[in-house]
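Example 9 (inverse folding). The structure is encoded as follows.
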């Protein structure tokens, strides 16, 4: 049976992600991360797409993409197709594993973002991934993420999203997310202060996005 055609809508934000087959390493070295970001930067220029957040990790990557009006949906589809194929080819050449089957487990996933809170929680989830994985002490120390770019400007991948980020965004990303918090405060208002001096970010419905590892 043929695959269902994927349809992206203009002026919507999508959480786009994919991972390596069988959860194997997708980025085995620092240079592999650097080359992947080179592909993102090239794709943003080539297709004029809006990447609002991104983060590659050892076995997978995430992006938040805001589709432009007009031909934006086609541009995003072409960008993701080129990104996946180009990265897979580079991966096989670098690892000497040409002919060993698919690099990615499937086509990229692209659930749509449904609200402003959903958007901000998604961006926080993407940028906090290295922190949640225990790879860094603070999220901005992961130099291959959009949070690092926000602070250093070292790459030219990011574009502003549809919702402005709070002024204390870095602290929100680095905040503890308590599993017992069932309601919380909207992240748009900066969260609420915890008794330990940190900013707590709401769990509630977006907890599946903040904490899940697809």
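The amino acid assigned to each position is listed next.
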């Amino acid at each position: 049976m043929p695959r269902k055609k994927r349809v992206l809508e203009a002026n919507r934000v999508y959480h786009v992600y994919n991972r390596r087959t069988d959860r194997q390493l997708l980025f085995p070295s620092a240079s592999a991360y650097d080359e992947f970001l080179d592909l993102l930067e090239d794709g943003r220029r080539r297709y004029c797409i809006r990447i609002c957040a991104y983060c590659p990790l050892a076995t997978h990557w995430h992006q938040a993409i805001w589709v432009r009006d007009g031909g934006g949906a086609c541009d995003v589809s072409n960008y993701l197709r080129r990104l996946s194929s180009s990265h897979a080819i580079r991966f096989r050449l670098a690892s000497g594993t040409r002919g060993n089957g698919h690099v990615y487990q499937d086509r990229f996933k692209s659930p749509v973002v449904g609200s402003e809170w959903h958007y901000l929680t998604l961006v926080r989830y993407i940028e906090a991934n290295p922190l949640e994985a225990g790879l860094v002490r603070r999220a901005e120390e992961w130099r291959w993420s959009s949070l690092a770019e926000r602070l250093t400007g070292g790459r030219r991948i990011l574009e502003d999203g549809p919702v402005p980020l709070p002024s204390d965004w870095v602290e929100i990303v680095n905040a503890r997310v308590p599993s017992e918090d069932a309601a919380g405060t909207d992240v748009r208002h900066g969260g609420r202060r915890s008794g330990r001096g940190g900013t707590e970010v709401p769990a509630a419905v977006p907890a599946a996005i903040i904490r899940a590892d697809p």
